[in-house]
Each structure stands twice: as C-alpha cells, then as structure tokens.
3-isopropylmalate dehydrogenase (Woeseia oceani), 355 residues
Amino acid sequence: MDALITVLPGDGIGPEVAAAGQQVLTAIAEKYGHKFSYSEQLIGGAAIDAIGNPLPPDTVASCRESNAVLLGAVGGPKWSDPNATVRPEQGLLAIRAELGVFANLRPVQILPQLAGASPIKSERLRNVDMIVVRELTGGIYFGAKTRDATSASDLCVYERHEIERIVRVAANLARNRSGKLCSVDKANVLETSRLWRDVTSKLIATEFSDLNVEHMLVDAAAMHLINRPSDFDVVVTENMFGDILTDEASMLAGSLGMLPSASIGESECGLYEPIHGSAPDIAGQGIANPCGTIASAALLLRYSLHLNEEADAVEAAIRQVIADGKRTADIAVDGDQVLSTQAMTQAIVAQLEQR
C-alpha cells in the first residue's frame, strides 16, 4: 500500500526516537512491498523557535493530508517559563484537537526479561497485560483557565457524548479481550466523575451488558495498579487521570521509554507517540530508549494502516531483541548488553529482516 506519514520530531530526544520509528517503518515498507513517504514538520519548542507558533499551519495541513502522524516529544526547560503565553505543550494539545483524536490507547505489557528493571517486586508483574483508554480532548486540560495575582482556576468539563464515545472504544476493546472493563473516576467528590459513572453505567447496561464492569475511584486505582496490576485488563478514564495513571504504569515496565500510545478518532489518521517526554537531560547523547516510539509505529501500522501482520512483526522484533539481552541504559541491569539509541534500532531492524 501507499501511505503518507507526517513525522513531528519535536524537542529534546524527540528527533532521535522519531528517527528510530521512521527507520523501522521504512524497513517494514521494504520487507512487505509497501511505499511509505514522509513529511517532516515542526511542533512544540522547535516550532516556537522557528516561527513563534507551537503548531504552525503547515504542520496542521500536513497532518490532515496524511494517513498517520508519528510524534517524538515536545517541551523542555528552554520553554518552561510558567508565565509564558506560548508553550510547547499548546502545540500537542492543539494537534490532538485538530485531528479529533479523542481516544488515547496506552498498552502496558511486562516483558519477563525486564522484571529486574522495574522497582516493583517481580512476582507482582506476572501476567500484566493491560490497555488504558484515556479520553484525550476534554476535561481539565482543555477547560477555561483563569489566573490573577492571588488565585487561579482550571475548569473541568465533560459532556455526555464525550463520555459515551470513549467508553464505547474501551468496551469494544474489552469485548475482544477478556471481557473485563474498569472505569476509573472520582465520583465521591467530582460532579464530572458522577456524570462519567452515570453515563458509563447506562451505556454498558444498554450496549455492553456482556462485559464485566468495575467502577473504581482513581486513588484506589493508583494503589491497585502497583499492588495487583495483573487484575486489570482494559481501563477507561478521563484525561488527567489517564495521564497520571499511565505514567505510574510505566514503572511496571521498568521505564517510560518502553511504552507506546495511539491516539485515534473517527478518521483514519491517528497520532502515535511514546508516553515519555522530551528528556532534555539526555538529548543528543544517543542513549534514549527508542522502543516506545518503535512500538508506537507498530500501533500506527495496526490502527491507521490496518497492517496487522506488519504490526505484529515489529512487536515481535522488540520482544526478541529484549530477550537476546540487548538494552538501552534505562532498562539495563548487570550482564545486559547496553546499546545506543541507533544500535538498539538497528538490532530491531535486523530482527525484522531475519523474519
């Protein structure tokens, strides 16, 4: 197939890991007879430096014309002034809204070989295989904001249709997995969460009565995510809760650098990025873990291009390289072969070529 992919390298280690993802996609295209072309565009701090806008019009136009978007990361201390009116994160929020990608899928699988890299006891990590479905374009991140010399506010708003569409995504995933769905909220305190629980309960009763559904408060979910992570399968929650819980879940896998994400909506064009940030402290050193971005490229193949065999091949290559004892520094323990970003990427490409 022919596909146009917009690549947004962004800031910090973003260009390094985005290049790794693109390299793997190119290897897939060559192996399976596809033709992928790429349009590299600016976003975040790099775009602010270039034209003063964290999401330039050319970037938006390219993304809209593409089959999928691969993103590195945005942000860094250079643009971290809390009083700044223009910030890199505005570009990320804006591109999500522009593309209408309301569902952020964050799979969390624990490779047995990486149990030693996690701060969590290895016995708690057995059989962990979950996917968190985070609502991405509503809630407190997108609500009206005010600030004066003595106070500030961030408005959290959810409408019924926003809750229904994200729960449908999660419920359909659960139906094709174990049939277990956990909806996370804060319904004992927040009105938005009370609406969330009410809408979710009614939707499940009318459209997904075959599922086993549990409602859980976010503080309890945070505790159980560490205490009994294998009990979770599909988790659905609102924007801020999902952001925080999946960063916590990354510690199960040993590193933020291992986890991918897919942001999808009603159109075919999705936004694919690792869950980690721009890590400016290691930018340019060639030590960033590319696995989260490469796994995000696998999700791109699966959800936007519908190339499931190719996606499976990428994920299998990552697993095999890890099984062979090859690591970047963030997931290495004694005895592992520590590789650079590029060497890790080349090892994964080599596995693809061997298959």
The first strand starts at residue 2 and ends at 10.
